[in-house]
């Protein structure tokens, strides 16, 4: 221990010396007369402001100062140091160019600072926030070739809003504006704030757009501030329409004709095939209910546009229906460009025609894919897919997809007796852009709901062990409330697994009933429902993802037939016992972005599957697993758990796949970008799986009140190569807490020995995968 302590002391001394060297050496690279700019500081001098108000004003003003000084890390400027020590490159590439201009950062000098410009920014910003008599000065403080600019602001008293008036007259548009007065953002007693005034103008414009004023603009509204009518630093606000507002902006428009061009292309326009606006006399032959569909070749059924369009003849224009219609047309998936034009057709009646110019995507496509793939069971391999897509199968924007595929997988870093996998199969899906059901389903979402019908078959061969034939069929719906919330309901989801060619070698390796259930005949059917919420598409520093799934198999059938396997009343359909269980799973993810190059990601998974009625056990394919490249990376795939069961008790040469009925898992990762495609990560994983019922072949596997002591913990570091088309991930992990060690001795810190080759072989797990784990 003493030698290790000495090494740590030397490391700290060297690190401290390097830090002092970096901090002191940057200024020596400056030329004569140059001074390094270390930043600007704003001091607010006003006794009438609270400490909180001063700090908020100070922070906002300093954020607006330009330029920003060189970035700092732990009080140092390492980027500036790398810029200074790197030689000037002769070309725009190479190590010196990368070190100086990619890693490094050019020095920000005092000469780069326009102090008078910043002073005006401080005064203008203060006035916009209600400090009408703000005055600012500046001073420069320099020492040891470093300079800081101190700005002193004397803002005076802040003006408050005394009264808000909406100018009234008898015009239509002013009467409409009066309707928004009760919910104004401008409040008496609140400070004058130009940003709030801008928001109020936008609010009025949005409201008018919902009431037919298509040509209105926020610039047509003016908010006059008068500080002469009140005393004690008060200001009166008068909201009114600008006198030079165009007449067109003051008129309320309604829809006359709705005209759709579903085969619109630029080439056809140039040839004179389409003309916008159209001659009204030529529209009659294209009429469908209240719309006109210009489709001479009848490529599309007109009713798909009747469902997608939220404007009908005679409707008052509103922005919500405008955007809703465009989004629904895009979500049909058959048009690559959607363009909309409103053209005045009757200026006296204030009506315009709505034109929808739609450019179809390629209706049919055939794609051949060759893929490299990995999964959480540490299998890697290649896959070949042939996909055919028809995006307008019955002329109603139905998408029909058919695929055939073949794949070969082999296990990396797993069990020594792991067998290779060969898979081949086919699947078809028909996706209809509406809800096909005996009841009426109305959706005001921007996304078209879909009915999905799927059929599939997969042949799976695990060499020298067994063959599985998997049949699947499903009927269900997918609909989105908005961009963040999605629902998927499979009214019926049927899976039939039929084994074949099960070898003696398999039974030699699968020595327990749990392992042998892999090749049991399975008939699984019932509804499944999932709900997904995500805002990860937003450019926010903090985002979340959640998916909850409910799987109910054989429930109604089990109730009707009175199935009860525990009372020897097992029921079969076509000679195969059907599965009966209830399964629920929750997947919650949290992401936080510190900077453009650093972020934190975490995930929690909780799930439970309960067998009853016709089933004593959960089907193997529906159970939970732990370990592997997308789970707890310090343990090999499917070797962790259940509970405190010790996998070392399993005889060599037997199958090690361990599954559970309950799962708890927590993962956390710190991610950073080093250079372009090169990313690194540090991570911690924790969790395990457990059984609902006792299993004499796996003692310690049942979930109990001792479950917290059976949580496995692992940690490690990772390297991610982001090549845009794929992300190659290498994660090196080691166990910190092993649940199958003796209770009270499960933390592995005392056992860590990087110098021992046998320890490294047993405990350092390298996971190779494609894509992020979550």
Automatic annotation (TrEMBL):
Residues 470-749 form the Bacterial surface antigen (D15) domain. It comes from the Bacteria. GO terms for cellular component: outer membrane. Keywords: Cell outer membrane, Membrane, Signal, Transmembrane. Pfam families: Omp85. Coiled coil: none annotated. Its main location: membrane. It is found in: Membrane. InterPro entries: Bac_surfAg_D15, D15-like. This is Outer membrane protein omp85. It comes from Chryseobacterium carnipullorum. The lineage of its organism: Bacteria, Pseudomonadati, Bacteroidota, Flavobacteriia, Flavobacteriales.
